[in-house]
Amino acid sequence: MSKTIHVPHLGGISAAYALSGEYDPSKPTCVLANSMCMTTALYKDQFDDAKLTAAVNLLAIEPLGHGSTSSATEHFTYWDSAIMALQVMDALGIQKAFALGTSQGGWIVARMALLAPERILGLVLLGTSMDYESADSRSKGCWDPVPLLKPFFTGWTSDTTRPDFVVEDAWCTMVGSVGFGAFATEERVGFWTKTLQEVYRGDEGRKKVRMALNCLLERDGLLMRLGDVKCPVYWLQGTEDTPFGTIVPAEQILLFTRSKEASLEMVAGGAHYLNATHPGPVNEALLRMVEKYGGTE
């Protein structure tokens, strides 16, 4: 169950977050940023790992446009979600942290490391790409989401309020199938369909999901900025990652030229939401990073 805390960015944000237990300042902390339309519940397997939570405080934060997070303004970008997450750390008295992001969460935590390099101790990137859906990335096996997703954006655009809005079953099913791949069980898809239709309901819900999708479709790439990331980077990619494949991560990890350490691990059979389909190697990678690079305040 997430809580909310007020932070000042964008004229005021009610930021939703979940902690793995009572915050322990003697342990390092890892911020977790979830994938498209997911909530803190995406990290259930991390929160349930007793070895992991004994070693590190897990702080899952729902980005703008997601879960119980709400803002005073309708428009925002991934940079805004990164600033918001840093302000959540401020509000909770956390000076430094590691950061792990799944899919779009990877874009958010990378931005956190660029905005506050002195505060982010290391990055764990899962099932992601540091580019936008450029022609180059599409030629190397990444998806082209615009033809598939823009019709949803158009349908969610309205000049009148729509209090009866509920995000479509088709959207929920697609999010589940793209994210979980072969692991998109009936139970898992059912849970996330129910969750998404609770979050994206009414006119405020319509605006949230519309802008969350706009962020994805119109985001900027980070390729020329990656050399400015100096903290260690562990990138894990599933071999069955549908949106971003395996070619682009192998090329982009080499762009972290000034990181203390930058490594890529391909996870056999892993789907896009790798922390959920293959939590074992993900949790082990985070533990390795925390043990190697410390981070206690």
TrEMBL record:
InterPro entries: AB_hydrolase_1 (IPR000073), AB_hydrolase_fold (IPR029058), AB_hydrolase_sf (IPR050266)
Keyword DNA damage among UniProt keywords: no
Gene Ontology MF terms: hydrolase activity
Assigned keywords, A-Z: Hydrolase
Domain AB hydrolase-1: 58-132
Listed Pfam families: Abhydrolase_1
Protein name according to UniProt: Alpha/Beta hydrolase protein
